[in-house]
Amino acid sequence: xxxxxxxxxRFRNHADTVLxxxxxxxxxVGENGAGKTNVLEALSLLAPGRGLRRAALIDLxxxxxxxxxxxxxxxxxHDDDHVRLGTFTQxxxxxxxxxRINEAAASAVAxxxxxxxxxxxxxxxxxxxxxxxxxxxxxxxxxxxxxPGHAAHAARQAAALRERNRLLSGDEMPEAAxxxxxxxxxxxxxxxxxxxxxxxxxxxxxxLADAPAEPFARPALTYRPGGPLDEQALAETLVHSRRRxxxxxxxxxxxxxxxxxxxxxxxxxxxxxxxxxEQKAMLIAITLAHGALAQKGRASVLLLDEVAAHLDPVRRxxxxxRLAQGSAQVWMTGTxxxxxxxxxxxxxxxxVSGGAAQRL
Amino acid sequence: MAxxxxxxxxxxxxxxxxxxxxxxxxxxxxxxxxxxxALPQLVEALxxxxxxxxxxxxxxxxxxxxPCGICADPRRDARSICVVEDVADxxxxxxxxxxxxxxxxxxxxxxALDGVRPEDLRIAELLERVREGGTDEVVxxxxxxxxxxxxxxxxxxxxxxxxxRITQLAHGLPVGxxxxxxxxxxxxxxxxxxxxxx
Lengths: 360, 198
Fold this sequence. Notes:
CATH architecture of the largest domain in chain B: 3-Layer(aba) Sandwich
Low-confidence stretches of chain A: none
Structural class of chain A: alpha/beta
Number of helices of chain B: 8
Largest sheet of chain B: 4 strands, parallel
CATH topology of one domain in chain A: Rossmann fold
Largest interface: A-B, 23 and 18 residues
Mean pLDDT of chain A: 93
Shape of chain A: globular
Strand content of chain A: 25-35%
CATH superfamily of one domain in chain A: P-loop containing nucleotide triphosphate hydrolases
Radius of gyration of chain A: 22 Å
Helix content of chain A: 25-40%
Distance between the termini of chain A: 23 Å
Number of strands of chain A: 15
Distance between the termini of chain B: 68 Å
Strand content of chain B: 5-15%
CATH class of one domain in chain A: Alpha Beta
Mean pLDDT of chain B: 92
Largest sheet of chain A: 6 strands, antiparallel
Structural class of chain B: alpha/beta
Oligomer: heterodimer
């Protein structure tokens, strides 16, 4: 199962780009700013969520154009039948994402029934050095791809947290009954959020355990919860920490304090202290593990932005080999064709320049 | 270009929910064409509402009499009070004529971020109504939103010591709904709220 007949209309710098006869491996080459990553971003919007740049819909429409865009692709099934997936905005409602599946209106969540899309971009290179909040967002994005309901718990937990922090920041200790009401919501969604993250990390660990340790640095993941995973226990902890939280000006216990700990398994060194290449290798390993975990009978697409260029020739070939063993359709970008030696003969290749794609 | 008066009318209508400038102009044009019939009727109806509109001192409903038509209705069961966030919710519930008791309109929902505190809502009035006696059941019919549920939790806790049964609208499977199409959150809620059959 893979995507084909991809059409970008008025999307970013692509006025009208069509990519036909896609293969298992697809390569987009071109100069910086040519519009390669924009193609990957368009593909990432064929899954629920905000895509690989988390951009506002208005920013996705071509600058200087009419202000709306469309992205479509055909999903070829095992029996050669096609499912047409599309997402677009309309001129009168440019901030509302609409979805069509097989010519019928559908929700963005329904896209997830057909397709699982994962990605790795240079923007994620600092994940292990960044704040813990970035890693929490990362965990949530990966979890949503497996359990769509995770997103609602994350949003409601965040809203309840803002309410509690505001209430505690007043001049006087707020009324207990009001805090009780907010904490009931905070505990319910907070526990669901933490349990979802815990399940995700367990699943990734199981996938990573089966992966070879070489040549990609194998990461050891540990989920460190910032509070109890049980709803009742979290609710009780919140009651007991009211005074402390009030003094601190924020809620000190709960999934908003979670941490995803990543260690280079073979050397037992925290990922943040590893070399850039080792960090990239661990990110690739997690991306591949998540791809396998999230697939669950659906078509799977991996978007790898500027990945090959950061790897030495041995690891590059090993990556292509690993990707060939999996079943995901792969889309890669690069500035030079040389980085794709070893896969070029099997791949569909497009030269991208000035918002247009030319099949090579 | 229409006259200043017509523009003023269109601008006033455009602010109404669900209308906007284009629909407002269309409504004005419609009224202008029917200035002998529909326009005086509308003016008269508006004037009448303006003269008589009051908030019910018992339940907070908006009506042309105080107590409102519902509170004054002897066929209504005053021992049962259904608490709603807004008048719109009361109307939605009463349109279906399923609830035979009386109502209590809070006038909003608790929100620390929006600065809506318990004393900004008609919660004290509700507690007073219940304390006066004669109430058997309070039905909390808040929205299933974060603020709505926080408000319901708050009121339930404030009523803990009062001799009254507190119930809440069920959340879960909609009538005619298929399990296959429900999101996980709703399904989980429906499972949690399952009850014996028969």
